[in-house]
Amino acid sequence: MVAESELVLTQRCMTEAIRASQFGIFEHDHIEDTIYCSSRERDIFGFEADELISVSSFVNKIPPKDRAAVEVAIKRAHDPAGDGYYNLSHRHIAKDGQERWVLARSTTTFGFVNGVKVPIRTVGVHLDITERKEREAQLERLAAILNATTDFVAIANKERQLVYINVAGRRFLGIDPDESLSDYCIDDVHPAETLTHLVEVALPTAIKERVWKSEVPFTRHDGEVVHMSQVIVP
Known about the structure:
Structural class: alpha+beta
Radius of gyration: 27 Å
Order of helices and strands: HEEHHHEEEHEEHHEE
């Protein structure tokens, strides 16, 4: 039948999409107190293929520093008075003993047993986000370094609008630490004749040769023109 063929195709597409996304899937039957884990889910947490899984199996994989937050989030998600939604990032101990990060999301549905509203079923996913967390940590370290230097460091897009300025740069231009950069661009930083040279010579040279260096006048927030050594990297 056509409808049955479409259903099989849809299921196959969903399976392939889940496999490509690297999501681990779990389903918790609260009434029977059983948990199904996909093969990817078992890989993420280091569970054996035939290992029986419980909520405590997951919690025991979580280091003490994150365990309390996870237990609170689980309790809230399983509370019939709540919305049943669980959304948390936390570390866990992988099979090789190393700490890794996962993003966890799930939804719990509720029903009535003997007239009492209770959790019936929880379906959720885990995604290993260790690499993303490491990149975020690297960016945080880089931002700390840039903000510690007394050099003026800035990033502009191809429209010459400023999208990042470190602490020293903000101080030089008189921009408050929390002020948006949406109204600032390279055109505001240099005297007119310097800007023309930068647009017509410096930027094309930087793009072609991967770097451009020279001494350039900058306009400080109080209007004073200050000469500084400038390096442009595309």
